[in-house]
Amino acid sequence: MASVSKEGNNTDKMVNHQLLKKRVHNDSMKHEEVDLVLATDLLDPRKTEVYNANPNYCSNAEFFQSCSFGEEVGPSGGKTVVSDTDNQLLIKYFFKERVNLSAVKFHFSKKPEPAADETEDSYAPPGLIKLYVNHDSLDFTDLESVDPIYTCNEVEDEKLLKVPAHKSQRIETLYIFIEEGNPAEALYSFVNQIELLGYPSADYHAHYR
Please, what sign has the CA dihedral across residues 147, 79, 51, 99? Predict the structure, then answer.
């Protein structure tokens, strides 16, 4: 009976291991960016909310689960989120599993209907926005002591805002802070909808068990 070379077997195992690692790495690099809110079931509705939102316009569920862009917005459509006591909004997204965020897109082409004692100029789209990730809980008073991963003071309707890749991987919570509207002196801020573009994070532990 011919003897089997242990050295040859070990070499084959090493080669196969490297090929497996390469295949796993390549598979993990293959991903399709989608709207993490509307195109997946990753958002946890129990822990997702909007701070300082005017309840006369929409509930959390109506804002986060709006099914498509261009539908009726405002009080009758219940899709637009509007600030309440001032022009700041803090929007918290909580995901069931970690995700990689690539970009954010704001939609604000349709202003809400003004109240009887207000005008359209009372409402402004986002002007200055800041993003924070992986904080268990943040409120308006916490924001002064926490550094955002991304800041933009030139937000345009439906313009893709790329976020820093090295700061937006494997995130569980995302806070979007609309610090002021555009113009800043407007009484209230509003946004029709927000797209979060990205993909689920790879579970490396599952590959190498």
Answer: negative
User: Containing H/E element for 90?
Assistant: strand 89-107
Helical segments of the chain, H only: 6-29, 60-64, 204-208
Question: Which amino acid is residue 44, in one-letter code?
Answer: D
- Taking CA 145 as the corner, what is the angle to CA 142 and CA 150, rounded to the nearest 5 degrees? 95
One domain, residues 5 and 37: no
Read off the DSSP letter of residue 169: S
Query: Each residue of 13-45: pLDDT tens digit?
Result: 554 545 454 444 444 445 788 989 877 889 988
Task: State how many domains the chain has.
Answer: 2
pTM of the model: 0.78
- Strand-pairing partners, residue 168, are none
AA identity, residue 139: D
In single-letter form, the type of residue at position 196 comes to L
Condensed to tens digits (0 to 9), the pLDDT of residues 61-93 reads 778 765 444 444 434 444 789 999 999 999 999
Residue 209 lies in a domain: no
* 122/119 Cα distance (integer angstroms): 5
**Can you spell out the DSSP letters for 126-144?**
EEEEEEEES-S---TTTGG
Q: Are residues 19 and 74 in the same domain?
A: no
